[in-house]
Amino acid sequence: MTLEGYLSDYRAKTARSRELFEEACQVLPGGNTRTTIFFDPYPFYAARGAGARIWDVDGTERLDFNGNYTSLILGHAPPAVVQAVREVVERGLAFPAPSEHELRLAQELCRRVPSLDRIRFVNSGSEATLMAIRAARAFTGRPKLAKFEGSYHGTHDWVQVSVAPPVAEAGSRRRPKPIPAGAGLPPAISKNVVVLPWNDPEAAARRIEQAKDELACVIVEPMQGIGGMIPPADGFLPALREVTARHGILLIFDEVITFRLAPGGAQSLLGITPDLTTLGKFIGGGLPAGAFGGRADVMAVFDPRGGTPKVTHGGTFNANPLMGAAGLATLRALTPEVYARLDRLGELLRSRVRELFKARRVKAQITGAGSLFFLHWTPKPVRDYRSSRPLDPEQPMRAFLGLLNEGILLSQRGLGCLSAAMGEAEVERFVEALGRVLDREAAR
Ligand SMILES: Cc1ncc(COP(=O)(O)O)c(C=O)c1O
Fold it and tell me: What confidence score (pLDDT) does residue 434 get?
């Protein structure tokens, strides 16, 4: 089916969303507040969610394999989390004082992740990476940071570099050029951000060595997340740990997505101890949340006792009680058995999709780990941003819309995740729907 064919099915099902979108265009630029969820001609408007399902304002029900970009690990409106929020909400929404909820969530996160000696809360993953980078600069007294090509760490200036650059303009694979991810970024950003090649330990270490005297930190996702759920090659992350430790450069693991993979995050599976870690998504139980933390000596830059701290860090809504209560209820529900079940379902989904691609001889593959997956529309082995580029740039959008029309919600680029509200029946529905989309693709 052509893109236009998928779109005309989509339009036919989403009349009320279209009306709301047209109204929204009068007050929001392009009707939009969140670039990542927009697609042409207009996104559907959500009405409600329950468990594995999401309903739009036209009443269409879909299975939600997007999970608000991996943040709804228990599914929509899990009763224990809703109850925890209900209890707190009636006693006040936010206070100019810390609450016990902040303390208990902090204790639980530090207990689960041994590298977290100290932690602080923010309202998003973007703020978490912003503040972790600030802490690294303050602690080391060095100005630069290094990040990987294809990695997304949020919306702030310092990480809006080489997120999804046009490959033709991005220099050589082993020495990528910093490419601003849009307009409005100051030139200082490109000068102070060193861009590294993902999954290439020698080339990355060489670039780090070259910049060592000016580098405050290297920020890296233990598995490249929104950029393709691309697992690290053997030895890649240990090499980063070794070279950064040797030069007093802080290693920041951005576990905003990968914290899903185990109670102690991906770092516990890899056996690597970063200096700082950033968290977000489900740690607030579905409410706006983020956190960053790590070594006590580094986090001491925020310690306000005895005068102004080295780094000041306010935030009207930081560690608000709703987020604290919802986050704690979510973590408590995430027992080792739930993680094991999510892992099994993820493995099942990936193997069933692999069989499907093989049986249909489709030039596509699925990557990921645990409950996370990503559909790639290329026959090349996917090991970094460049090798993950689709052969046909329109294909991910056709797959997204095809699945949407089949009652399956993914992300536009192909990212998906499972929630604890799902079982084998949901995996089978996904595979069957993908099969029907592949049939339509074959008939194009
Ligand atoms: C790895 C990673 N870091 C940071 C962020 C930013 O988080 P937020 O959208 O909560 O600002 C994201 C968002 O998807 C992410 O995937």
Answer: 98
- Determine which helix (DSSP H) or strand (DSSP E) holds 206, and give its type and residue range: helix 201-210
| Whole-model pTM over 0.90 | yes
Average of per-residue pLDDT values in the chain: 97
Give the per-residue pLDDT at 443: 86
Q: Are residues 62 and 128 in the same domain?
A: no
Q: Is 34 exposed, middle or buried (0-12, 13-18, 19+ CB in 10 A)?
A: exposed
> 142 and 111 in one domain?
yes
Testing ligand 1's pocket by substitution, the residue of 281, 282, 417 carrying the most ligand atoms inside 8 A of its CB is 281
CATH, residue 286:
3.40.640.10
For residues 302 and 346, state if they share a domain.
no
Do 167 and 308 sit in the same domain of this protein?
yes
Above 80 in pLDDT, residue 266? yes
> What's the pLDDT tens digit per position in 78-102?
999 999 999 999 999 999 999 999 9
Q: How confident is the model at residue 444 (pLDDT cuts 50, 70, 90)?
A: confident
Return all residues near 306 (Cβ < 8 A) that are at least 6 apart.
Answer: none
Catalytic residues: 152, 254, 281
- Quick one: 147 and 267 in the same domain? yes
The distance of Cα 236 from the centroid of its chain, to the nearest Å, equals 20
Helices (H), 1-124: 3-13, 15-24, 67-70, 79-89, 100-112
CA 126 to centroid of ligand 1, rounded, Å: 6
CA of 352 to the centre of ligand 1 (A): 29
Q: Over the stretch 3-22, which tens digit does the pLDDT of each residue have?
A: 999 999 999 999 999 999 99
Q: What lines the ligand 1 site, CB under 6 Å?
A: 69, 124-126, 129, 152-154, 221, 225-226, 254, 256-257, 280, 290
Domain end among 333, 362, 386: 333
* 17 and 92 co-located in one domain: no
C-alpha 79 to ligand 1 mean position (Å): 26
What number does the ligand 1 atom closest to the CA of 221 have?
Answer: 1
Ligand 1 atom showing the smallest separation from residue 124 Cα = 10
Query: Atom of ligand 1 at shortest distance to CA of 128?
Result: 4
Percent of the chain with pLDDT over 90: 98
Residue range of the domain that includes 152: 79-333
In the block, residue with structure tokens 């490419």: 179
CA distance 135 to 275: 11
Residue 69 alpha carbon, nearest atom of ligand 1:
14
Same-domain status, 186 and 314: yes
Atom 8 (ligand 1) nearest CA: 125
Distance 382 CA to ligand 1 centre (A): 22
Q: How many domains does the structure of the chain reveal?
A: 2
Tell me the mean pLDDT in the region 318-343. 97
Quick one: 366 and 321 in the same domain?
no
Q: pLDDT category, 126, cuts 50, 70, 90?
A: very high
Distance 442 CA to ligand 1 centre (A): 35
Q: Tell me how far apart the alpha carbons of residues 54 and 56 are, in angstroms, rounded to a whole number.
A: 7
Last residue of a domain, one of 314, 333, 352: 333
